[in-house]
């Protein structure tokens, strides 16, 4: 049994075990555990011995003894005049945390190639703070006390203008609903479909989150093949579904761009069957090669629900996105967004509106597009140049986005390769993480946070991780 006492002065939870040891030993152990579990982090200022003793109902000697012992162990340091703090080198066994992708956080020293992870260290903090300051101080921008369910009118106007000019969608602000991102938008769409109905087609491979959201709403999921032209529309037709979820601009994770032929076929199918196409406008902002491609909703809005997000362009944790419904479904979708939970912070909404209106968003996109392109070029070149990875076959999906797909030898065990890579300091994700049905082995490599100078090192580590499984492939190849 441990007695929980929250120190009121510092809101520090001390779990003091109720056992026969002297109190100073129990306190030492409790603080050591708090550091080990990451509840007390490097630099954290501990309460003075007087304050903590008063809170715990013990003498100051008990607290001083504990602090001295922990300082001797290297967990705490005491400086004249600045109190007792957790040292920078105090090692925390952090609580297990799950990344947005659903995969465990790799150790900090790893090269992290999880796809879908933008370089959040490049968040445009100064410009964002300027916009936030503006929103908080200019009466013309003052946030409404009760934000409208569809989102701040100013942001809806700004997003509509952005979608008209950058994505070619004929929208005005009444057509835009602000969401907490693509997954939130998808949850709303799923609520408007009938669980016992015809089901939803999803890309296989595809981002698992959107199909999970649909499945959680009780919808039947129908996997559909993806090839170099994007989703197989004939297979969608055969699946006899009420909706299809796809990423036409940059299919995840194959990187296919939905061809003009398939775009037309998909819209024809939706029109003929009164189905809806849920367009995940993923990675549309990061197109490096070829002409920019407009959104599917730019061709027809009647059967397309367009979902956009600032998760990749600004920060995965911002939880800010938008949904453009077909006009006939607007009312139902707005109700569904409202009941799917609270929307994003009104301050973030207005800050983002100001950020876009002042041109800071476009500047940030130009800057990051250039940086990501360099990272992509470095990784592609390094993989092609290395004698092992260069023989694996063409990397896929490189024209846009923040990741690529590297085929593995046909008999390679993806999971074994990924776990060997983890041992070599590289976190990568196997293609099977995104597939419903078995597919040839491949690695999905995100380069959003890979410094170009590390690309060759990554190619070497992949080659090393492949060695056992690559051998048969190399022998048969000559
Ligand atoms: C394929 C795909 N689409 C969209 C998103 C953005 O989702 P959200 O806006 O919910 O963060 C992600 C995020 O990882 C993704 O992988």
Protein architecture, described:
It is a single chain. This protein is of the alpha/beta class and 478 residues long. It folds into three domains: 2-86, Winged helix-like DNA-binding domain superfamily/Winged helix DNA-binding domain (Arc Repressor Mutant, subunit A, Orthogonal Bundle); 111-117 and 363-476, Alpha-Beta Complex (Aspartate Aminotransferase, domain 1); 125-358, 3-Layer(aba) Sandwich (Aspartate Aminotransferase, domain 2). The protein contains 14 helices and 17 strands. Strands 6-13-12-11-10-7-8-9 form an eight-stranded mixed sheet, sandwiched between helices. Mean pLDDT is 89; it is low at 93-101 and 469-478. The protein binds pyridoxal-5'-phosphate (PLP).
CATH architecture descriptor of the largest domain: 3-Layer(aba) Sandwich
State the CATH superfamily name of the largest domain: Type I PLP-dependent aspartate aminotransferase-like (Major domain)
- Percent range for β-strand residues: 15-25%
In total, how many domains does the architecture comprise?
3
According to CATH, the fold-level topology of the largest domain is: Aspartate Aminotransferase, domain 2
**Biggest sheet overview:** 8 strands, mixed
The count of strands amounts to: 17
Strand numbers in spatial order across the main sheet = 6-13-12-11-10-7-8-9
Whole-angstrom Rg: 26 Å
In round numbers, the mean pLDDT is 89
**Low-confidence sequence ranges:** 93-101, 469-478
Ligand roster: pyridoxal-5'-phosphate
CATH class of the largest domain: Alpha Beta
Give the helix level as a range of percent.
Answer: 25-40%
- What is the tally of helical segments? 14
Protein name: GntR family transcriptional regulator/MocR family aminotransferase
Organism: Actinoplanes octamycinicus
Pfam family, one: Aminotran_1_2
Family: In the C-terminal section; belongs to the class-I pyridoxal-phosphate-dependent aminotransferase family.
